[in-house]
Design goal:
The chain contains 5 helices and 8 strands; from the N terminus they run E-H-E-E-E-E-H-E-E-E-H-H-H.
C-alpha cells in the first residue's frame, strides 16, 4: 500500500545522489523508482532525472530536481531521534563529513542544503517532562553544536 502522505524535497539537480546518500546512512532507508522528465521543462531537460522515490527511516519521500529557484532553508528539516552517543556521532559525522556543515543545538546541513536535527531521545524526553528538568536540558543544549548525551544527562541529574 502506498503512503497517503509523502515528503517532497526540492533539489537543484542531485535528488538521486542525495537519496542514495541517505539510504547509505540511515536504517530502514532505501531508494525506489527514479522517474525521468518526459519533456523539457523549467527544472530539467527531457530524459533528466526529475523525481526520485526514497525512504528515510521508514518515512516515504520524493526528491524533485526542480532547479535552483527554491533553495533549502531551516524552515524545513528532518529530525532523527537517536538512542546513543555513537548513533548521534555516526549520523552527524556522515552528514557533516560529506560536504555538510555544523550548526547549533543539534542542527546540521547536508551538502545539498537540507537541514537535519540529530536529536537524542534523552533531550526530547527531558523537554516533555517540563519544568526544571526541561529548563536544565534545554540550557545544556543551547551551548552545543553536536548534542552530547552525557552532558544532557548530567544537566538533568543536577
Amino acid at each position: 500500500m502506498t503512503a497517503k502522505t509523502t515528503i517532497c524535497v526540492w533539489y537543484d539537480t542531485e535528488a538521486e545522489a542525495a537519496a542514495h546518500f541517505y539510504a547509505s546512512v540511515f536504517p530502514d532507508s532505501h531508494v525506489g523508482a527514479v522517474h525521468r522528465s518526459p519533456m523539457d521543462n523549467p527544472g530539467n531537460k527531457a530524459g533528466d532525472v526529475m523525481l526520485v522515490e526514497f525512504t528515510i527511516c521508514g518515512t516515504p519521500c520524493i526528491g524533485l530536481n526542480g532547479g535552483p529557484i527554491f533553495p533549502h532553508t531551516e524552515a524545513f528539516s528532518f529530525q532523527i531521534a537517536t538512542d546513543t552517543q555513537e548513533e548521534t556521532d555516526r549520523y552527524w559525522n556522515a552528514i557533516v563529513g560529506n560536504g555538510g556543515a555544523e550548526s547549533a543545538c543539534g542542527w546540521c546541513k547536508d551538502r545539498w542544503g537540507v537541514n537535519w536535527q540529530i536529536t537524542p531521545r534523552i533531550l526530547t524526553e527531558a523537554l516533555a517532562q517540563g519544568g526544571e528538568t526541561a529548563r536544565r536540558a534545554f540550557g545544556a543544549m543551547m551551548h552545543m553544536r553536536k548534542l552530547d548525551h552525557a552532558a544532557i544527562a548530567s544537566a538533568i541529574a543536577d
